[in-house]
Specification:
The chain is of the alpha/beta class and about 325 residues long. It has 2 domains: about 5-225, Rossmann fold; about 230-295, Alpha-Beta Plaits. It has helices at about 45-50, 75-80, 95-105, 115-120, 140-150, 170-185, 195-200, 220-225, 270-285, 300-314; strands at about 5-15, 20-30, 35-40, 60-65, 70, 80-85, 155-160, 185-190, 205-210, 210-220, 230-235, 250-255, 260-265, 290-295. A 6-stranded mixed sheet has the order 6-7-8-3-9-10, with helices on both faces. It has a 4-stranded antiparallel sheet with strand order 2-1-4-5. Helix 3 packs parallel to helix 5. The two termini are about 35 Å apart. The relative contact order is 0.13.
Amino acid sequence: MSEPILSIRGLTKTYANGPRALDNVDLDIRAGEIFALLGPNGAGKTTLIGAVCGLVRPTGGTITAFGHDLARDWRAARARIGLVPQELATDMFETVWRAVSYSQGLFGKPRNPARIEEILRSLSLWDKKDAQIRALSGGMKRRVLIAKALAHEPELLFLDEPTAGVDVELRKDMWEQIAALKQRGVTIILTTHYIEEAEEMADRVGIIQRGRIRMVDEKRAMMERLGTTEAVIELAAPLAAVPEALAGFGAVLSEGGTRLTYRGGNGQGRGRAEVAQLAQALTRAGIGFTSLDIHDSSLEDIFVGLLGQEQEAA
């Protein structure tokens, strides 16, 4: 396996008279992947991004990007990193064209109007190039942030809540833009409150809580390992108890014996196979049922479950 494009070891950040925002964080990011960092408000997502992008001074630990230690040689690495922040940080009276062109020059890139045009067209901003940023809608302003981040052609791009506050149609459009960036070889780290974004796009998922990385795994592996399948079976006639033939499935009765509920397996196949076996066992035992409803865990179910366990342990 190749060396990670970004390697974080023992990263901590404690604010004066405040909480520890990052607590001994270790994280490796692979070249070319989309990595989603999930966590509730105040978990440390933005602080972690700020530490890598030079906006936050860490209390301890090391950050290595493209083989450069950011504490000693930050200029060489920083020019290869882009950031799309949560908040609009640009001159609202500037035009779109000038704002994006300025970002290109900020990192020492030579003027390249053709590249600026390509970026603006790809983000559906070309017809707004001469408009002042203040005149744009919220969604268009967020696209300008992405254009500014792409102007110096970064190899590693941070997207901090990239679709917060935009409508569903625009959110899906921006998902397509992020997928296109990956196709061009850009490594992407995104934080999001919309867990469906991670489920839609991410190759790997990390969960951060109270400044600590709780888990990092391939998205599919995480869902297979921690996901469950739930099946609710409405019975044709009430049962006084779960029959011996069904004991091995761990199903429980409710609603006066008219509902049988199964939870187990995982969200990627085994659980559904066990539900099929349960239905066959019901049929063999002569137990009729009127409906069978199956639900597989989503990434959101897993995320909420993990955070609930953390709160119970606290």
